Amino acid sequence: MEPIPSELLRRLEADRLVPVLTIENPARAPRLGETLARAGYGLAEVALRTEGALAALQALAQAETGLLVGAGTVIRPDQAEAAAAAGAAFGVSPGLVENAAAAAAKAGLFFIPGAVTPSEALRAAAAGFPLVKFFPAAAAGGPAWLRALAAPLTESGLRWIPTGGIGQENLADYLATPGVIACGGSWIAPPNLVARGAWEEIEERARLALNRARRIKEGGP
């Protein structure tokens, strides 16, 4: 099994949260990065779901915020290649798309496939992926389903990033699930707040979420 890059592993274990960002206007990206870094984050994921997503990813990667930036919703080889060229340190997919994974490997982009069934998880583990996105987490059955899914794969060392339908109210349940290294979420910096540049509100939300994740990590409520 391929190891998780040491810097990515360190930041995932430290934060236990990955802000999933949907950015329409690339000009917003540097300020958003500054806001997340000020709130204490070490990494973020830009979803490739908007026309300006790649430009936003590049702007965020080039901004001097210290954030490790990844690309989300990588489902095609050209997206993997473009994300790597834009400065992404990792790529995340909602599924295991072999040609996108191969393109990412060729471009030097660490790839995190998605899995939501035992067959998908076993395929990911057999292919050597050490880290898998569990998506859509809430719709697929939440922490209970993930616990059942992950249990037979414990010895493989597979780690999980559940994403989709996660918020302050259920974060603890996901982070307490064996094998979960971090949770992804768009509630940390919602697209509507990013679009209107509500930086103080985003920073407050982001800081609240990160503090909650760290309390959970330390065994608190």
Please, could you describe this protein's structure?
The chain is α/β, with parallel strands linked by helices and 221 residues long. Helices cover 46% and strands 14% of the residues. The chain has helices at residues 6-15, 29-38, 53-62, 77-86, 98-107, 118-126, 137-140, 142-150, 171-175, 191-195, 199-217; strands at residues 17-21, 43-47, 68-72, 90-92, 110-112, 131-134, 159-162, 183-185. A six-stranded parallel sheet has the order 5-4-3-2-1-8, sandwiched between helices. A two-stranded parallel ribbon has the order 6-7. Helix 5 links the parallel strand 4 and strand 5. Helix 2 (29-38) packs across helix 3, helix 3 runs parallel beside helix 4 (77-86) and helix 4 packs parallel to helix 5. It is globular, with a radius of gyration of 16 Å. The termini are far apart.
Blueprint (SSEs and pairs):
Elements: H1 6-15, E1 17-21, H2 29-38, E2 43-47, H3 53-62, E3 68-72, H4 77-86, E4 90-92, H5 98-107, E5 110-112, H6 118-126, E6 131-134, H7 137-140, H8 142-150, E7 159-162, H9 171-175, E8 183-185, H10 191-195, H11 199-217
Which sequence of SSEs, written as H and E, runs from N to C? Answer: HEHEHEHEHEHEHHEHEHH
Please identify which CATH superfamily we are dealing with: Aldolase class I
In CATH terms, what is the architecture? Answer: Alpha-Beta Barrel
- How many strands, which pairing sense, and closed or not: the largest β-sheet? 6 strands, parallel
The rough form would be described as globular
Strand order in the sheet with the most strands:
5-4-3-2-1-8
Low-confidence runs: none
Helix content: 40-55%
Q: What's the total count of β strands?
A: 8
Mean pLDDT across residues? 96
Stated plainly, the CATH topology is called TIM Barrel
Secondary-structure class: alpha/beta
Question: Helix count, per DSSP?
Answer: 11
Distance between the termini: 34 Å
Q: Strand share of the residues? A: 5-15%
Number of domains: 1
Question: In CATH's first tier, which class applies?
Answer: Alpha Beta
Cα Rg: 16 Å
